[in-house]
Amino acid sequence: MKKVLFAVLAALMIAMNGFADAAASTGLDRIVAIVGNEIILASDVNEQELMLHLQYPETRKDPQLRKRILENMINQKIILTKAKIDTVKVDEKSVDDQAAARYSSLRAGFPSVSAMESRFGMPVNRLKQHIREDIRDQQMIEAFRRKNFHEVTVSYDETMAFYNQEKGALPEAPETVSVSQIIKMPLVSEAARQAALDKIKAVQQQLEAGGSFATLAREYSDDPGSREKGGDLGFTRKGELVPSFEEAASVLKPGQISGIVETRFGYHIIQLIDKEGDRIHTRHILALFDRSKTDIPATIALLKSIRKDVLSGKATFAEMAKKYSDDPASATNGGLITSGSGNPDLEVATLRPDLRKIIDGLKSKGDISQPEKIESDKSAPFYALFMLNSRTPAHVLTPEHDFAQIQELALNHKSQELFNAWIEKLKKEVVVKVMSDI
């Protein structure tokens, strides 16, 4: 557990530096360590300790916690110092994007900008600058680490040696499931479909009469993200757009305008601007469906019909997902749900409570749920079918069944040992002075 906890310290250090500044700005602070030209304040350590206590309450019982926090912060400062000496470059646009996302997430936790400024003890512009600098430093650290450790591998013999040495301490493999889904947003009523169709047909007539695509997009499109840009969606790769839109756009020639194309969002008219390899540059005009006028019974009936056809053998679940699902990410994989890393085996304990309850009701491979209403924090409610592909109970790791997982643990262990040796070597090149006992 301690290894897991301290693996997150680098990220926590960046996330919490603003809090440390607030503490330093509201009272006396002291320097606890100097690393090259960088300093570490007591408030830095205090805030990291607070964050760990909040996320992992069991750390309150660890008498060595503050010492390990300081050691980790010193290691991070050493790497940063070396990265700056070696002029490691970072992607400045990525830094800007991450800084903006970090600030937005932070801002959402306060009722007003002034409340946020009061908590951090600094004006918002300084806070934004501080966030950007922190993220840039962390990217430099990660780039420098990748440069030195990107070729680390473990052989079969190394993996087995690690297993034989550590098998008594290896974590238990948690219960996992593989699940596929078909997502349907509530079908819109016929009246709403007709209203959107009438609107897009009127736009189509103006285009056919010689109207400017960009001008008409600015005037009529219901897509707020592209409307002011004349409908321009920029370059996208295969799989990034909903299938029906992508299919219609991919057959166009540069400059050519499509007919009316239906997606779950509404009716589109698409113009292909350019092609570069597997990327297409498009713009569109959207007549959005009015989703305040939905037909829930028809949505449920469609999903029940899909379920019946799959269970009777008329179609496979994967075929139906590709044809009907409104989630393009899983639809292209036949409805298969994967983790952020692309792993199809999902830990049951990490599933959302509502999804876990549904999956617990599926006992055998191939079982399909009834249509279920799913509430989402990120979108309007939708309806879904879920099919159980496999279920693996929790078990002790063994090479026969879990070699890939053991190999990953062995690789992490080897990387950590090499990292520790590397840090000791860097300490001889960077002046480190611990000023105070924390």
From TrEMBL:
PROSITE patterns: PPIC_PPIASE_1 (PS01096), PPIC_PPIASE_2 (PS50198). Residues 174-274, 277-337 form the PpiC domain. InterPro entries: PPIase_dom_sf (IPR046357), PPIase_PpiC (IPR000297), PPIase_PpiC_CS (IPR023058), PrsA_foldase (IPR050245), SurA_N (IPR015391), Trigger_fact/SurA_dom_sf (IPR027304). Residues 1-22 form the signal peptide. The lineage of its organism: Bacteria, Pseudomonadati, Chlorobiota, Chlorobiia, Chlorobiales. Transmembrane segments: none annotated. GO terms for molecular function: peptidyl-prolyl cis-trans isomerase activity. Pfam families: Rotamase (PF00639), SurA_N (PF09312). This is Peptidyl-prolyl cis-trans isomerase SurA. Its EC number is 5.2.1.8. Keywords: Isomerase, Periplasm, Rotamase, Signal. PANTHER family: PEPTIDYL-PROLYL CIS-TRANS ISOMERASE HP_0175-RELATED, PEPTIDYLPROLYL ISOMERASE.
